[in-house]
Amino acid sequence: MAVPLTFLVLILRTNIQAGIYLKMIAKVILNNREHNIDQCFDYAIPDGMNALPGMRVSVPFGFGNRYSRGIIVGISEKSEFENLKEISKIIDKEPLCSEEILKLCLWIKEKYFCSFYQALRLFLPPGIESGVKEKNIRMVRLASSKEEALAAAKKMLSGRAQIQGNMLKILCENSPVSSFELMRLSGGNSAALSALCKKGFAEISDKRVYREAYNSDKYARSGGCTPTGEQKVVIDHLINRISSGRHEKILLRGVTGSGKTEVFLQAIEHCINIGKTAIMLVPEISLTPQMVKRFVSRFGEMVAVIHSGLSKGERFDHCNKIKNGEVSVVVGARSAVFAPFENIGIIILDEEHESSYKSDTTPRYHARDVAAKRAEDCGAVLLLASATPSLTSYYKAEIGEYKLFEMLERYNKMEMPAVKIVDMRGELFNNKNFSPLSLTLQREIDKNLQNKSKTILFLNRRGYSTFVSCRECGYVMECDDCSVSMTYHKNINQMVCHYCGGLAPVPEFCPECGSKHIKFFGTGTQKIEEAITKRFPSARVLRMDTDTTSHKGGHEEILDAFARGEADILVGTQMVTKGLDFPDVTLVGVLAADTSLCMDDFRASERSFSLLTQVCGRAGRGDIPGRAVIQTYQPFNSTIKYAKNHDYINFYNSEITNRKRLNYPPFCDIISIMASGETEDCVEAFMNDIKAELDRFMKSSGCITSMIGPMPAPLAKIKNQFRYRILLKVSSLDEIHPLLALLIKNGEAQNGKVFLSIDTNPTNMF
Ligand code: ADP
Ligand code: ZN
Ligand code: ZN
After folding, report:
1. Read out DSSP for 640-683?
2. Closest Cα to residue 757, out of 69, 125, 118?
3. 613 C-alpha to center of ligand 3: Å?
4. What string of DSSP letters covers 475-488?
5. Ligand approaching nearest to the C-alpha of 507
6. pTM of the full predicted structure?
7. Predicted confidence (pLDDT) per residue in 677-721, tens digit
8. Is 579's C-beta closer than 6 angstroms to any atom of ligand 1?
9. Which of 69, 145, 694, 744 is the most exposed place for a label (fewest CB within 10 A)?
C-alpha cells in the first residue's frame, strides 16, 4: 500500500525536529565595518543552546579562530557548507530586536551602502555596546510584622542601638521606601540598615526606574474635538485602513491651520484603542514644543518623546519602554522611525517636505523611505502631511502612487492672511531708508502695537552672506551651465557653482545694471533686534535664534513667554516658522525673502515657497484676520507671487514643468559619489578609476543620463581630508545599484587610504 504523500512529509518534518538530520544552523553577521565580510556566516548551534534571531553571539572567526561578536539574523535547518564551527557563547538572554527589524536592517544595508551593524545600531538603544545601564533604586521594605518591629524598635531605642531603632520605627510607617529616603528621614546610615537586614526586620530590593524626559504631569489632559467635515473624511479613511491592517501610502495636503494635527491625534487614538502602536515624526522636536504638548496632553503616559536634547540614559530608557510595550506612541525627529515597536498601525511624517528627514551621515537614509518600507512590511498606513508637500510627493500622488487627501480650509473658516510684497530696491533709493524694516512693515508694526496684537518677524539665515546680489536691480549671480546661484568661497576669494564646480571672479559692478551696490547678502537677528528697539522703543521684543535657545528648554521658555503676552514682537530664524499656533499673532514680516530663494540648489524655489507659506501661515490663526509683509529684492519672482496667493497648485505646476525640462528629480535620481583621503593625488586617481567604470557602464546602459566630475567637492578639504565628487543623474536606481555596491566593495578591498561614500538624492551638496 502506498504511503500518502502528506504522511511522508510529516515523517520528514518530525525527523528534522528530532534532530536526526543536522544541528540547527544560525546565520550570523559579524560586528565589523568591512563590506567584503559584511554578510551572513553559518554557525552550528550547540545542543541545548537557546539561540534565536536577534540575539548577539560570540563566534570563532577566520584562520586564527579569534572570537568575534555578531548577531543572529536567521535560523535554518541546513547549510551549503560542511564542518561548521559552533557558536561559542550567547550574549543576550532575549532577542535585542524582532525579525521584522532584522529584515529591515538588511534592506537598509543594501539600499544605503552601509554595514549591517551600522543599520542595526539605528534600532538599538544608544550605548548598548559600551553599557549605559538601567537605572535602579534600592528599595527597603519591612520584613517582619509591624508589631514585632515596633517592639524591637522600642528596645533598640532604649538600649545602645538607637540609630537602628529610629530607622526601624520610620520604616514601620513608610514601607516600602527608597533607602535614600529612609536614611534622610531617620538620620541613619547603611551600616545600620544592613544590621536591620541581618536581624530579619528589613529587606532590600532593586526597583527599575525610568529617567523621565518629559514631565507629563505638567500638562493638563485634554480630549479630542469634533472633527470638521474635511477632517472627518480623512479621519474615517485612516481609521478604516488602520483597522484593516492593509498598507497604504497617503499624502495629506492641508493648508496651515486646517487642523492636520487634530487628524493625527484622532488616527493615533484609534491605534491605541485597538492595541496598535504609532510613530509620529516631526522635523526637529525641539522646534515644535507646542506640538509635543498636544501629544502629551492627549496621550499622557502612553507617549514617549524622543528629541536631540535627551541624555543617553533618557534615550536608553525610552527605547526600553518602547520595546517592552509600555508606550504606544512615539513622537520624535527622523531617528524615531526606528522605534522598536511591533504591531504598528500608522507612521506619520508631519511637514513631510522638510530636508531634515534626510540623514547626511552614514547610513544616509531618508526617513520617508524607511517609513514607507516599514509600513509596507507590517501592513501599516503611511501618512505624509504638509501644507506644501515636496514636489516629489505631490508628483507621486498625481501618478497614483499615493492616495491624496486635501484640506483647503482653515478649521475655523478664517481667511488665509493677506500678503503684501515690498520691493526693497525702492526702499534704498526712493525712500532713503537704510533700515532692514521697510516703511510699509514699520507702518504695519505700528498698527499692531496700537491694537495690542502680536507680531512675528522672520529672518532667514541659511545661505547667509554666501551669495552675491545687486541691491539696485536684484540681479543674482548664477552659474551659466546649471542655473543655480553661485556661492562665495572665502579661502579662494571666488564664486563657486556647487553643481559643476565652475568658478567665477567676485563681481565689482553688477553685470546687469552696472551698479556698484552689489554685495553679499545678510544681516543677523541681533542687528534686526537692535533696529526694532531703536525704531519702536516701547515695544517688548523677544529674540529666538541659536544663541538664545542653546540651553535646555530654551525654545520653550521663549515661546511660553510670548504666549503669556510678555512680548509684542518675536523675531527669529527658521525656528519661528514652524508649527507655532498663537491665535493672537496677526502680523508676520519676512525681512528678506531673497536669502532663501538664492540657495545653490535646484530645490531652492521649492524650499522658498514652503518657507514663505509656513511663515505667513503663523498669522491670523485666531478670530482676527492675519496680514503678512514679504520684503524682497526680487518682487517679480514667480515663487514669491505664488506664495503671496497661497497658490500651491500653480506653483507645483510651474515648478514640475521646470524639473521635467531640466531633468531634475522626481524625473531622475541624483547620486553623489564622494571620495576623501589625505593625499589629493590618491583621491583623484581613485576617482578617475571610478569614472572609467562608470563610462564603461554608460556604454551598455542608458541608465546614467548625465555625469559631472570627478571634481573637488564644494568643501574641497575638511579636517585635512581632500574630497572629490562625481555627480550622476540616473533614470533607475535599481539598475545602477549593483554597480554602486561593487564600487563600494572594491574601494575598500584595494585601497585603505581613500574612503568612499555614496549618497542618493543628497539634501545638501557640500
Ligand atoms: P495644522 O496642523 O493644520 O496647522 P492644527 O491642527 O494646529 O492645524 O489646528 C489649528 C488650530 O485649530 C489648533 O489650535 C487646533 O486646536 C484647532 N482645531 C483643529 N481642529 C479643530 C476642531 N475640529 N475643533 C476645534 N478646534 C480645532
Ligand atoms: Zn544690478
Ligand atoms: Zn554650474
Report:
1. HHHHHTT-HHHHHHHHHHHHHHHT-TTSSEEEEEEEEES-HHHH
2. 118
3. 29
4. -B-B-TTT-SB-EE
5. 2
6. 0.79
7. 888 999 999 999 999 999 999 998 899 999 998 998 877 777 778
8. no
9. 145
